[in-house]
Amino acid sequence: MTILLIVIIVIIVILILIGIRIVRPYQKGVVERLGKYKRTGEPGFHWIIPFVDRMTQVDMRENVVDVPPMEVITKDNVAVTVDAVVYYRATDAVKLIYNVTNFYLAATKLAQTNLRNVIGELTLDDCLTSRETINSQLRDILFSATEQWGVEIVRVELQRIEPPADVTQAMHRQMKAERERRAVILEAEGERQANIERAEGIKQSSILEAEGRAQAIREVADAEKLQRVLLSEGEAKGVENVLAQLHEEDTDMYIAVRYVESLKAIADGNATKIFMPTELSGIASATGMIGELFEGGKVAPQVKPKMPGEVPPPPAVSD
């Protein structure tokens, strides 16, 4: 009896150990009992009945499907080699197990078929420049097709779009010609801009030089004008001083100077004839005295000679 009890205990322990299941944090466990869906186990410790229940663990992380390279005909009849990768994530473990037999193979064939359809509607240039558009269209198609499999298509990326060798060479020549054309245009534009800047600089320099010359001419004219004004004021002041001195020293001399100024005023007129007075000798002597006064010397009064038939002048009245 003791041996039988020990055997029964060992069998029970073995069954308990066999029924232990550990579900990782990134997994979910689908439990079947006698071939029928029972429940979905969350991450953690689980125990199932041995030989009655079965647990299938499903990876819920993001996975990738590598679509092998294939030849696709574009809209402009160019055969290109295309391959892609599809990123997916399981959203429903039960659907992923019961609705599709081999999801990897199914996703690969589905991606190849729809990739042919998408690229077949585009030209070669559009295929090379519209990768984002192709990725987006292919993702939408695969997402709607795989939704019933309990899988979410995260993104689709084209790895390579390779045209034939002759087309590639023609594209290289076209690209080279386009770059050369752009270089010539940019060089011409730069030269034109440099000429414009150079002409603008010459223009500004000429304007500034002309303004400087005009300013210098104005300053010289102002200086000459000021010099003439000061000279005129000085001469006028000197004449006033001489007249004042003559008026104080000799009334006859003062009258002679006034006489000379009156003759000057008469000569500046429009008259064609000028009557000169007979007292030329008196005027000459007075003019000589005025010149000596301007030179800074003081001249004593002179006695003018008496001309024949000359009437003597009236006697001077002292102040």
- Which spans of ≥5 residues are poorly predicted at pLDDT below 50? 296-312, 314-319
| Helix-strand pattern | HEEEEEEEHHHHEHHH
Distance between the termini: 181 Å
Mean pLDDT: 78
What's the number of extended β-strand segments? 8
Structural class: alpha+beta
Strand order of the largest sheet: 3-2-5
Biggest pleated-sheet summary: 3 strands, antiparallel
Give the overall form.
elongated
Helix content: 55-70%
Strand content: 15-25%
Give the radius of gyration: 62 Å
If helices are DSSP runs of H or I spanning 4 or more residues, what is the number of helices?
8
Write the layout of secondary structure elements.
Layout: H1 2-18, E1 20-23, E2 27-33, E3 36-41, E4 44-47, E5 53-59, E6 62-73, E7 79-90, H2 93-98, H3 103-120, H4 124-129, H5 131-146, E8 151-162, H6 165-249, H7 251-267, H8 280-294
Antiparallel strand pairs: 1-4, 2-3, 2-5, 6-7, 7-8
What report would you give on this structure?
The protein is of the alpha+beta class and 319 residues long. It is 56% helix and 20% strand. It has 8 helices and 8 strands. The protein has helices at residues 2-18, 93-98, 103-120, 124-129, 131-146, 165-249, 251-267, 280-294; strands at residues 20-23, 27-33, 36-41, 44-47, 53-59, 62-73, 79-90, 151-162. Helix 6 (165-249) crosses helix 7 (251-267) and helix 7 crosses helix 8. Residues 296-312 and 314-319 have low confidence and may be disordered.
